[in-house]
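Why run this: before we spend reagent on co-expression, it is cheaper to look at a predicted model of the complex and decide which construct boundaries make sense. The entries below are exactly what would go into the expression plan.
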Amino acid sequence: MIARDEASVWRRQPDGEETDMLTLNINGKDCEVNVPEDMPLLWVLRDVLGMTGTKFGCGIAQCGVCTVHVDGQPIRSCIMPVVAVRGKKIMTIEAVGQTPTGANVQKAWLDLEVVQCGYCQSGQIMCAAALLAATPHPNDADIDAAMAGTICRCGTYTRIRAAIKRATQPS
Amino acid sequence: MKRSGYTNLFVLLMAIIIGDVNGCIFHPHGPMDFAGGTQVVLADYQGSDPTGAPPEVAGAGLVARGEYLARAADCIGCHTTPLGKQFAGGLAFKLPVGTLYSTNITPDKETGIGEWTDNEFVTAMHDGVGRNGTRLYPAFPYSAYTLLTRNDVLAIKAYLFSLKPVHAMPPENDMSFPFNQRYLMRFWNALYNPAQRYQPNIDRAPTWNRGAYLTEALGHCGECHTPRTLLQGLDANKKFEGAMIEGWKAYNMTSDQRSGIGNWSDEQLENYLSTGHAEGRSTAAGPMSLVLNNSLRFLTKDDIRAMAEYLKTVPPLHNQADLAVAQKRVSATPSEARARSPRGPSPNDEDLGLRVFEGACASCHDWDGSGVHSPYADLTGNRTVNDPSGVNMTQVILQGASLQTRQGEMFMPAFGTGYSNTEISAVVNYVTGLFGVSPSTMTPDQVAEQRKKK
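The model came back. Tokens follow.
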């Protein structure tokens, strides 16, 4: 094998050990993290910043429990490289209740007792809040389109649908 | 594609007859002959040397140069099994006439190439003849490597000999008669191995010549992208027209505007070749993603640029079935996407495809196909969603995809085990209809067939 400095002239292999100081805007506050650029946002949130409200589910963007908002759009934080959200507004389950839509969603969730085991629910609430922010009065098809990718193994789907509709009504 | 023993025998006899005649009259078609102009032997070429490692590694020592060249030649791609030790061989090649296994090319003395002399290694690379005169099968692309200079072949050997020896004997080949008669490759060689070193074209730019050397001698792109003749040689009249490989379509990469890369900008082509993704065009998957991971991503910018320059000069060939790729972004909202749900071949497809899409695809690809987490997931203008056969669409859904990039691994999970053939055919037809020009007509039975091809 060739020496590393020789190879680095033309090698493009990402070096997983190098870290960078990144500034992230999370829930309205800037915070600095020293992590590899390709670390998934979810790891930064949970393991570096200790914000454990966002859950790890599948790790391949298939279950939706790790959903957070980036500039208002729901994204799966488990596969989002942290460098890709630099300079963007990240919102997590810890702060979504401070927005009017997020507060309505959380209240509707409590009113209808949507939660069973609860593991997926931060992802469900983040998806529902993003849906209602973009589409204040969704029909069933809109709800399916926005929520189908977020899985609940307890099967609380009917209560989720009802709570989303409840959240659209003035309280 | 199964052939009877009699057909095999017939093909063999034809090969011998044609091979004999050919040896007297014809000469195998050179891969760069399409360019016209005058080709000269390397020693007579006045321009900068199109062979060897690039200036960035030229001073780094023989082994480092060999490593670069071995990567450009993608040796590891065929000589390593998915979970096996690097370069230890054993990868199966299932051909219509039997199964071949790649050899161990680590410097192990018993099972690898540790005892091979320089001349033996060069003879294998240039003539397809192994130690003790054993004829090699052309699954090993010596008809491309024959163009390599002796110096480059020996640099590759020096690199391979710098590796840790791995003691591993690949399985025995299982070829049917008469294809288990290795001496018959003589005739194949007369037809298909130009058996001469790379000759630069003095009527083309030095960068074009460098691109030709990288594409034809090292990269052996035609092995997948050029259709084969009945005798399994590359069909010179269909250069880079596209072909099937392991159940995937290796796309047409001629300069044809509709079927090939004629409309791609230089930047798109260079980005695709170096990263596996070209915005508004394509993202590599399947066998091509392995070529990116093992080979192309390690090439220098100038080398990538040279390959792109060369590829753009390959004469256009048109595939009748291809449609013009749709470049438009579709509606951004789910309701609008729903309203323009395409009609698949069965009335059931529309709803089922939509349901699978919203549950499994939309969270990453988004309803407008733009890709949520990564530009690699952008479906706009993608050849695969615009291919009316739906073949690669089916494969990527069944097997997933993975590319190593400077931003880390870009991947799509495999959905093959989680979804039925009916669900997959429905979502393939749905997605090609929504983001492409016209819905594909994949059936559950065809998906079942696609599952078997690996």
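The longest helix of chain A spans residues 121-134. The first strand of chain A starts at residue 20 and ends at 26. Bring this page to Monday's planning discussion.
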